[in-house]
Structure formats: structure tokens, C-alpha cells
Specification:
heterodimer; B: alpha+beta; five-stranded mixed beta sheet
Amino acid sequence: MADTIKADETVDITDVVCPVTFVKAKVALEELDDGQILSIHMNDGEPVQNVPRSIKDEGHQILKLTDNGDGTYDLLVRKVGD
Amino acid sequence: MATYDIAALKKGGFMKQKQKGKFSLRLGIVGGQVTAEQLAAVVEVANRYGHGYVHLTARQGIEIPFIDINQIEEVKAALAKGHIAPGVCGPRVRTITACQGMATCPNGCIDTENLAQELNDRYFGRELPHKFKFGVTGCQNNCLKAEENDLGIKGGLKVDWQEDKCIACGVCVKTCRTNAITLKDGKITIDPAKCNFCGRCAYACPTDAYAYTRGYILTFGGNFGNNIAMGEPIIPFIEDHDKLMAVCDATIRFFAEHAKPSERFAFTLKRVGFDKLAKVVREAYENA
């Protein structure tokens, strides 16, 4: 079932480093409406260790983390609140 | 000029300077927390009795240099108005240092502020064979460098995975820095031999699928001066506050009983054997 979740928007944060990784993801989430889903493409290492936690602390709902097998991950997040 | 007792002044936090009759006044600060009111009193004293500046010490202290020996009582009175007093130096329990801990830090696992205050109330200034330093840090990030203290206290979380809440997203697996967590067929396994109680899994979990207990990780016999020694653990994780205090009591008592005058804890432990302390600490832990 989880595989059927479809993202409304995607953002690639593999081209930036901490703390801009989170900032870029946060800005992308700002653009969405409450309940919409964002897919965040991120690198292994610090981004995947820290960005999900930061998104959680902002109050959004994390749905799934997918290992792409190429050193990148996709995090599916449902926006909570406007 | 009046004669004065350097040892007595040191006990009161007055550090003798190269400059005759001048002292650098160390203030009593707990866990690095200073109120604005206290700071105002410090500014007043530094301007009026010192040279208009302060020195921030390595262990979260404030010293006001160039206090004249003849003005010590006036200085103490001026500080008392701002509810701040001289600290200590010499052979006794020193400033209790602490990071900000869980009161403000997202990573904090324990209430370092209150623990530092409690340790201060219990031990600060206690006479011992040599200096004795406590340091309290809120988590494995170790901003307060627990292991360099005679007794270092580090906060941690003992976690327990709750299957019914888990969405098998895998965030915890990636968040864990010790690779203690594996996710297979929707089930999480935690390797207790690898878990360092950092709590990152619990804090990062999107669905709060980790129940946790806060606790303390203690290290004994660290120092970071002429000699450098890293404090060593005895009990992996102490959950109970009373047991923590019993272990601290037993450690201080051990130092008082076994150390030679002017011998730091690390050297005492080397001389009498770390195992001897370990036995005492375990007994205190079991019996509390």
C-alpha cells in the first residue's frame, strides 16, 4: 500500500549541504497545501540522518523513506498545517 | 597592609595574580547558567574594582581580574546584591559544569540544569585530597566533554521498539550512528551491544514508535591538565536517580578515603586499582 503513495511535488536537496538541505526542503514544503505530499531526494550520510528528524520536529508527517540503492534516498512527507 | 592567607582566599575563589596584592576573582556558577541580574553585578564589579573586563574560564566560569586585596569585602558585598558569590579553587569539589540539556536542546536526554544544581547543592566546595570535577552533558554529542571530568555524567535514552506504531520507514536505521538497528520484513532489531543510548532513533522516529527511559552514563577518573586521562565507565546505564546519587556519593567517599594529598583521582585509581572503585560503585548501585 505504501508503494502507491504519490507525491504532489518533488525537491532535490542532493546539490546542497547542511543546513541548507533542511532549508531547501522546508521552502518546498511551504509551497504545498495542507495534506499534500512532497518527495525529498537526498544523499546518504548527514542529510538522511538529520533531515527526517528536522521535518518531524516541524510537525509534518513522514510517510516513507526509500533507499534508491545509489547513495540517495527519497523521503515522502505529508504537509501538516499551512 | 594586612597579612592574608592565600589558601583561605583560594578557597573563596580569589586567585593570586603575578601583580602583588591583586587577585582574579572566580565566581560561583552552576552549569554555565548566569542570570542577567548576576551579569549586571559582574559588570559593576569589573568596572569599579577590576580593569573593566572579565575572563571566561575553560570550565564555564567567570573571573574578574585585578581585584585588590583591600577591597575584597566590598567586592563580595557588591556581588551579593546581584545574587552571585565567589567560587572556589584548591583541593575541593569545583564548579559543576553542564550543557543546557533537554530544557532547551533538541538532542538533550536529561535535565542537566537541575542535575548540575543538585550536585552543586550536595557537593560544591567539599574538602578533598585534591580538586574534583563534575561535568554533566545531555547526550552522546558530549558538548560538555563528560570524560575529561573526575566524574562525568552523560544523558542517554534506553529505547524499546513498539511494533504497533512502526511504519517501517527506516529513518531510525539511517539515524543510528552505531549501526545498531536493522529493519527486515517490517521488523526492527536493536543490537544491545552496539546501542550507545544516544536516543537519535527515538527522537527521529516519525511515529514515536520508540518508548524510552531516560538515564545516566557515568565515567570515572578523567582529567585534562598536566596529565590527560579519559574517564572510564563501570555501569553501562543508570536509570534511577537515587542510584545515580548513591554512586556519586560512593565515588566522592572513595576519593576522600584513598587519595593521597594532591593526588588527582586518575592517579589514585591507577595506584589502588580501578577494579577497587568498580566494586564500590557496583555495591552502591545495587544497595541504593
